[in-house]
Amino acid sequence: MEIRKIGVLGAGAMGGGIAQVAAQTGFDVILSDVDLAYVDRAIGKMDSFLAKSVAKSKISAAEKDAVLGRIERTTGLDSFADADFVIEAIIEDLNIKKEAFSKLDGICKPEAYLTTNTSSMSITLLAAATKRPDKVVGMHFFNPPPLMRLVEVIRGYSTSDETVRVASGVAAKMGKTAVEVKKDSPGFIVNRILMAQFIEAIKLLEEGVSSMEDIDQAVKLGLNYPMGPFELQDYAGVDIGYHVANYFCEEFKDSRWNPPLVLKNLMRAGRLGRKTGAGWFDYSK
Predict the structure, then answer these.
(1) Total number of domains in the chain
(2) Per residue in 187-213, pLDDT tens?
(3) Which of 8, 108, 120, 184 is the most exposed place for a label (fewest CB within 10 A)?
């Protein structure tokens, strides 16, 4: 089956970015969230992003309008009945995701593929919420999706070779480089490595070895990273990293993934996270 129409569930930073990339590369897109205001906000961000490309003569105004014109705005899931390929990009809560996959399974046509943009959770568990586990696969984009080139394509226990091939092909058409994660292991490739670095950086701070500023500077200059670990945590969301670390600790049954005490205490006190709008550098002031 040729993939022509892509449904994106969730219009946050990741979902909106994925929808933009899909529309820019010629796919018809259905973008859905619980409130149309979230969808409109995502489209507003796309408009601003594309306007800069027009100003730099990278695309024409007509091309910009054509991209936005390929996106259908909606709430709920009913519009996904026409989708060939669905990318879920909602909150990183396993139970909420499982419920979404169960509902999508009942609405989407039997031949449609269901994918998740989760950064760490089990593809196998999400697939088990459907009657098409062979057509469920992880498709982890990176933030911001219009600029980041990598997509991790993750197999669940029952994911078919064909589904991996189709997902990798969709990523390629979007201009991304796909890497295959052959086993459904928490964190996949990038976040497994990244979380270890985050935890060690926080331990260095906790032990008084160095300051956040100097740890970030050392990593940027010594490892040639564009962002230091604290800067990156603030950008991605400290609360996301905290929840992922707890998830790793539970799944692997390995204390090395246990969030450092300073992070636990700051999260418990409500000092860090998206709800407060605070990151590590806000805490340090």
Answers:
(1) 2
(2) 999 999 999 999 999 999 999 999 999
(3) 184
